[in-house]
Amino acid sequence: MIKRWAYLLYLILAFLVLFFSAAAGDEFGEIPSFYRPLIDRLSQEGFDFAILAKLFSDPRAEFIPGVTSLSLYPTEIPERYARFLSPDAILLSKTFLNHNFKTLKQMEDRFQVDKEVAVAILLVESRFGENTGRYRVMPTLASIAIMDSPESLQRNCDASRATDPALSCEWVERRSRKKAEWAYQELKCFLNIILQEKIDPLEVFGSHAGAMGMAQFIPSSYLNYALSEETFEKWLSSKEEAIFSIGNFLRSHGWKKNLPVRKKKQILLSYNRSIPYVETVLQIAQKISPSCQGTGGKGGGSRSLSTRN
Hints:
61% of the residues lie in helices and 1% in strands.
């Protein structure tokens, strides 16, 4: 009799386990299979599984294959930045400096960062907010973060070796894993930012590398250096907050007045690891500096911005 009851109890428990497993599968059944290991890893680090499941099952969170390819040849070349040194671009920069002189001067006084350098960065990064990126940040970082999956590794190996047969899959794997881990850490930073805000996480757009706003900060830079009085959503489009955030970033990396050019280049490489980028920023700053010194301007504010961390 006891054995019979024990057997019945076993059957009931087995049924309950199967029932709840099936129910959970139905609830989160729309999560793409390639995102499941990523969601599991994030949930193990404290992120809410239900929230992640809802976000990653949204059609807007689809995998973006274009951001997961490896660059085999240098893309950071001077020709890429030539347009920022055109007469039209320099005139646009002078106009921005003049119209926002008060804010830029306040930033310069507070952080000892040349206002012309901040203007040059804003031109190159987003053309003063005109081009802040067309990629949804969350699926962009998530797609890069799963570059170390077996399927992605094989796809990148095949594509890379089709271009250069001398490449080894081991080299491709090392590059892919490094890039995937970087993106995973940035995705965690993005989730830490966005889950505290009212803005829809899937309606935040940025670059193909997840850089956001006028200043094109990656999520970790936002957490560490962004200056804002209001919300993340406001920061994304605020030229005042972009100016002060750039100042805070550069000062935090050692910028001060009258630095030698060598040191300026070293600090700017922390903003963007590209020699042509750094050279272009310094050339723009030099071109807009003489005609703008001593001028007043419209716009700008006098708020004291605080760090978002």
